[in-house]
Write a structure and sequence with these properties.
This protein is an alpha/beta fold. It is 34% helix and 18% strand. It has eleven helices and 13 strands. Strands 1-7-6-5-2-3-4 form a seven-stranded parallel β-sheet, with helices on both faces. A six-stranded parallel β-sheet has the order 10-9-8-11-12-13, sandwiched between helices. Helix 6 links the parallel strand 8 (193-197) and strand 9. The longest helix has 19 residues, at 335-353.
């Protein structure tokens, strides 16, 4: 391995990356939220392409790390709980040539230092812990897209992007389960199949589009496509909203509720089967973006930093003040604007299949 010095890298325009010669075993520690894990997948893809002969092992969260299952550029995926990290220092891992830590958590850094010859991470918060890391990548002075920001970590040692679209793989068994659910709910009898994500995070309900606006959108869909189907999506936080939608439309059989019915990966498989997806900034929206399938994304803030990159069939609709901070009233995104976005994508998809 080249270079035993320690660096603090801020990556100005003239920055020259540190070269790390041909590691055979790479450990990536990626303990983050769903969206942040997905945002790191382009960096993982680039890492594997840069070191194609290396065995890339990713250590991630026991549940959220399932987002990474089936990705061809990960050779081994280890999922564990954060509470077990300190004990993993004593686990008989093989010796890794290179460790890449997405973050600067002290336990994660200690784990990487224990098992890796060379460690790269985001800048440590406590200068007394800087000895745990060989290359620290300091935060950007300018706001960056979340994918670009994650890419900076591997760019620090010469890795070049291999595409900026996030990656997700639906496994065969998951797809079959989604097909069975749609068949059991007679979804195959109607077209198009539109999925709507009713809620964002429970703690960030200000990102949600008002329920009355969803009613208006569904009415527009059924007016233009009487044989269409609407699939309601969401977790436990959306149960009441889903019930209200079904009640509002008097139990219309064209509305199918998948709310709180599936695990994260099962839900992703269902999302992959939809003709069109509409939703606010939340995990399933990131997933649909990674699948590169037609979607309308509603952003409460900073779409320039969060929107899917390299997406062929994406319409972004943002609050008028989305590039400013704060909590905005999402009712200012009107139904007609969202419907026109949906209509454009549905018509485009219909033309491409003719």
């Amino acid at each position: 391995m080249a270079c035993s010095l320690r660096y603090l890298i801020s990556m100005p325009p003239e920055f020259k990356p540190v070269e790390i010669e041909s590691p055979k075993h790479i450990l990536v520690i990626l303990m983050a939220r769903y969206g942040d894990i997905l945002a790191a997948t382009p960096a993982l893809r680039a890492l594997k392409q840069h070191y194609p002969k290396a065995c890339v092992t990713v250590l991630s969260h026991h549940e959220r790390g399932r987002v990474l299952e089936g990705l061809p550029f990960i050779d081994r995926l280890i999922r564990t709980g954060k509470f077990r990290l300190k004990w993993l220092q004593y686990w008989p891992f093989p010796r890794y040539d290179l460790g890449v830590v997405f973050g600067n958590n002290l336990q994660e850094l200690r784990l990487a230092r224990k098992h890796c010859q060379f460690v790269v991470s985001e800048a440590v918060a406590d200068i007394s812990q800087s000895g745990l890391v060989d290359i620290q990548v300091s935060p950007s002075e300018m706001p960056l897209h979340i994918v670009t920001d994650r890419m900076r970590l591997v760019s620090a040692f010469g890795v070049k992007p291999a595409g900026m679209r996030c990656a997700y793989e639906v496994l065969e068994g998951e797809q079959q389960q989604a097909e069975r659910w749609l068949k059991s709910n007679s979804a195959e009898n109607g077209s198009p199949l539109l999925g709507i994500q009713l809620s964002s995070f429970p703690t960030k309900s200000y990102r949600d589009w008002p329920l009355s606006h969803w009613y208006g959108l569904i009415e527009q869909v059924f007016s233009a496509y009487p044989n269409g189907r609407v699939v309601l999506l969401g977790g436990r936080e959306s149960v009441d909203k889903a019930r209200d939608v079904v009640t509002h439309f008097h139990g219309d059989s064209r509305i199918l509720s998948a709310v709180a019915c599936f695990s994260f990966r099962q839900n992703a498989a269902l999302i992959s089967m939809l003709d069109l997806y509409v939703g606010p900034d939340t995990g399933p929206t990131h997933l649909r973006g990674a699948l590169a399938l037609p979607m309308v994304a509603l952003y409460h803030h900073f779409p320039s930093r969060l929107r899917p990159l390299e997406h062929p069939s994406l319409i972004v609709i943002a609050h008028p003040d989305a590039e400013n901070g704060g909590e905005h009233d999402m009712s200012q995104i009107d139904v007609e604007t969202v419907w026109q976005g949906c209509k454009a994508l549905l018509e485009s998809t219909a033309r491409s299949t003719d």
